[in-house]
Amino acid sequence: MENLGYLSIPQLVIRIDHLFSSIAMKLKGLGNRAYNIMFHTHTVSGIVISFALYVIFFAGAFTLFKDEFYQWENPKARVPLVSDIDYDNVFRQIKRKNPYFETDKDLYVAIPSKENPLINIRGREVKKGSEPAYVGFIYNPVSHELQSDTPYTTTVGETLYRLHFLDQLPLLGRYLAGFIALFFFFASLTGLLIHWRNIFSKFYGYSLKGTWRQIWTNAHTVFGLIGLPFQMMYAITGAFYLLTLLILAPAVMVLYGGDQQKLLSVIRPYEGIKFDPKSPETTKNLSISQIISNLKTEHPDYHLTFLNIDNYGREDGVMTTRIVDDRHFTGDGIISVRLRDGKKVVEVIPGNKAYVESVLDGIARLHFAKFGGLLLKTVYFILALFTCFVIISGVLLWKEARNKKNYTEKQKRFHHRVTMWYLSICFGLFPATAILFNAELLVSSESSKHTFWVNTTFFISWLMLIILGLICKTETKMTKVFLVLTGIFSLIIPLTNGLKTGDWIWVALFKSNYFVAGTDIFWLITGISTLFLSLLVKNKSTVVSRKVVEEIA
Fold first, then answer.
1. What's the confidence (pLDDT) of residue 524?
2. Residues 169, 216: Cα–Cα separation, whole Å
3. Secondary structure of 317-385 in the HEC alphabet?
4. What residues contact 513, with CB distance under 8 A and at least 6 apart?
5. % the chain with pLDDT above 70
6. Residues 513, 78 contacting (CB under 8 angstroms)
7. How far is CA 210 from CA 197, 215, 218, 221, in A?
8. Using omega within 30 degrees of 0 as the cis cutoff, is the peptide bond preceding 151 cis?
C-alpha cells in the first residue's frame, strides 16, 4: 500500500475523491418502489414537523448555556463563590419568612457553583385547606439576603428551556414534543436511506452553483449528513425523556403490579427509602454543612450539584446528593446519607453503578452535554444550528420542487403561503430571542410579575414578527428584514446590560465575570454578523415566480 504521508495535497484530494467514488459505486440503493415510498414518507413527515422541530432545536441550542448566562440574566448572582455555608441556618430563615414552608418532604437545594453562586431552594408550602404547592427561595451567601423565587425571579433560561420541549402548551406540549422527536428520528432515517446511494458524491461535490433546487438539495443533504449522528442522538434521547411515562406505564402495570414506587426504587435506589411521617423530631442530627464537608473530603475529585432532603429535623431524616465529575462521560453518582449519624444508605458511584443506572445517567449527560465542558457545549450548539439550517433548506426544497409547470398557479400560491408561514415562525424566533434577553433586564426585577411581563413581551414580539414576515411576501425580503432586526436587537443587549448594571464588557472582564462578558460578546458578534449577512441578501425573489408573488400581493 502506498504511503499517504508522501502524497502532495492535490494527490491526496484525488485519492479521497477516488475512494468516495468507489464506495458510492459499491453501495446498493433502494429499488424504485422502495425509494418512492421512502422519499414521500421523508417529505411528508419532515414538512409536518418542520417548524415545531426548528423551535425545539433553536431554543435547545440556547438552553445548552442556560447555566452559563444565568449571571447575565440575574445581576444579583454576580458575586464571588462561597463554599462554607450554613444550610441549616438558611432553612431556619426560610421557616421564619414563610411558616408554611415544609422541610419534611421534597426539600431541594441547588448548591452554589461558578455559574450560579447563589443557593436555590425549593420545597412545599402547605396551608390548611389548600393543596400543597411548590415554592422557591434564593439565598445570597455573600449579602445573606433571602428572597422569594416564586414565580421565578429571572426567566430567560427557564423560558427557553421550557420552549425547547413546548412546555408552554398546556397538558399536551411535552407529549407533542416527544412525538415530534420520534417523527424526526423517522425522517432522519428515511433521509439516510434515500440518499444512501449517492451520499458521498453529494457531500464531496457540494457547490453553491446551479439552480436553487440543486443548491437546496445539496445543502439539505450535506448538512444533514454532517449532523446526522447528533440528530439521531437527540431524537432518541428527547423522545425517551418526553415519553418516559408512556414507555414505563406498561412495565409498571405488568411487572410491578401498578406500584410505581417499586419501579422507581430500581431506577433510582434512593427513591426506595421509606420514611415515617410520625418519626420523632430531633435537634441532634448532624449539620448539613458537616455532611457535605465529609463527602467532599471522601470524594475530592467530584463536586456536589444538588441536595434532596427528606424528613429534615427528624430521626430518620436522609440527605441525598449528586456527585459529578464533568471531565468524564460516566462521572456522576448518587449518595444518600442518614442525618443522625452520617451513615450511607445508598451509594451509587462510577465503577459501581448498575446497568440501568448507568444508562439513565448516560442519556441525561448525553442529551444535555453535561460532560466535556464549554467546548462540547459549543459543538452541540453549532450542530443544533446546522440542524436548523437542514430544516429550513428542507422547507425551501419542498417548495422549490413544486415550482414546476405541472402545478397550477393556485397550488403554487398554496405552497408559497405554507413556506412563508413556516419561515416566519422560524426566522421570527431569532430576533424574538434577542428581545427576550433585553426584556429580562429592562423589566423591573422587583416586580412580582417580572416573569409574566418578560414572557409576555417575548411571545407578543414573536407573534408580531411572524405577522411582519408574512407581510414581506417573499422569502428573500423576509430573510433580509429578520437579519436586520436580529442585528439591531442583538447589539442592544450589551448596551442594555451596561446601562442597567454598569457591567460593560470590559468591566465584566476586569471583575472576572467571564460568563457575563461572554454573553455580551456572543450577542455583539451575532449582531455584527447578521447585519453583515443582511447586506449580502438581494432584494428579489429567487425561489418563487414573479406572477405568484404578484397574485398573492
1. 97
2. 32
3. CEEEEEEECCCCCCCEEEEEEECCCCCEEEEECCCCCCHHHHHHHHHHHHHCCCCCHHHHHHHHHHHHH
4. 71, 78, 503
5. 82
6. yes
7. 21, 7, 10, 15
8. yes
Contact 426, 252 (CB under 8 A): no
Per residue in 112-121, is it b (16+ CB within 10 Å) or e — as a string?
beeebbbbbb
Of the candidates 457, 387, 334, the one whose C-alpha atom is nearest the C-alpha of residue 225 is: 387
Of 249-258, 341-350, 455-464, the one with minimum mean pLDDT is: 249-258
d(CA 472, CA 48) in angstroms, rounded, equals: 23
**pLDDT tens sequence across 486-545:** 999 999 999 999 999 999 999 999 999 999 999 999 999 999 999 999 998 875 444 444
Cβ–Cβ under 8 Å, residues 469 and 481: yes
Q: What single-letter DSSP state applies at residue 106?
A: -
Q: What does the pLDDT average to over 178-182?
A: 92
Q: From 34, 43, 54, select the one nearest 196 (Cα to Cα).
A: 34
DSSP string, 146-205: EEE-SS-S--HHHHHHHHTTTTTSTTTHHHHHHHHHHHHHHHHHHHHHHHGGGHHHHHHT
Q: Is the pLDDT of residue 37 over 80?
A: no
From residue 466, alpha-carbon distances to 393, 428, 479 in Å are 19, 6, 12
Q: What digits encode the pLDDT tens for the residues 383-393?
A: 999 899 889 98
Amino acid at 158: E
**Rounded to whole angstroms, what are the CA distances from 203 to 99, 224, 305, 451?**
64, 10, 43, 45
Sequence-distant (6+) residues with CB within 8 A of 354 are: 348
CA dist., res. 363 & res. 366, Å (int): 5
- Of these ranges, 11-15, 211-215, 293-297, the one predicted with the greatest mean pLDDT is 293-297
Please state, in angstroms and rounded to a whole number, the distance separating the CA atoms of residues 53 and 231.
11
The predicted pLDDT at position 371 comes to 83
Query: What grid cell was written down for 526?
Result: 451575532
Determine which of 203-207, 232-236, 371-375 has the lowest per-residue pLDDT on average: 203-207
Question: Are 541 and 549 within 8 A, CB to CB?
Answer: yes
Query: What pLDDT is stored for residue 495 in this prediction?
Result: 97
Question: Residue 395, exposed/middle/buried by CB under 10 A (0-12, 13-18, 19+)?
Answer: buried
- Give the pLDDT score at 544: 43
pLDDT at 262: 61
